Amino acid sequence: MIDSLRPLRFMRQYQSVTQALLLGLFSWGAVLLGIVPDLSGTTTSVFNTVVQAQQSPEFSEMEIRSYARAVLGIEPRRQTAFNEIQAIMGAGKSIPDVVCNETRTINQLDKAVRDIAVNYCTQAKSIIETNELTITRFNEITQRQQADPALQKRIQAELQSLQN
């Protein structure tokens, strides 16, 4: 439901919005909407089922740094994909759910929108892996940080450090 992430376009206009808000909105969208693909280890389908994060051990500083870099790399692409889909759908139209790991939702999209969604999902996967994380580990950190204020603070601090 990329539509529910429209407030992120608003944030581009106001650079003073806190990093915590960006992280929270991105993470909420990525986990709840399945925007982050789990494409590891399959050749038969471009999209796999979501790997549910389980209680995982503490995350290393290297993983937090990699996660923050991935978030910063993915978010502009998500915004671009959203804007392109919105342009195709037209003003006032509801943006369809784009869930990278659910083939059914991708197949229901018009071809032009499907191409944008597949491109976005491929880019997100590549960015995560380039930042030395697996899709599973990225999803674990995303889910865990939503309920762990200490982890949120660590990620926020790393995001601020990378943006300075």
Automatic annotation (TrEMBL):
Any Pfam family matching the protein: DUF4168
InterPro entries, A to Z: DUF4168 (IPR025433)
DUF4168 domain mapped to chain residues: 60-155
Domain of life: Bacteria
Full protein name: DUF4168 domain-containing protein
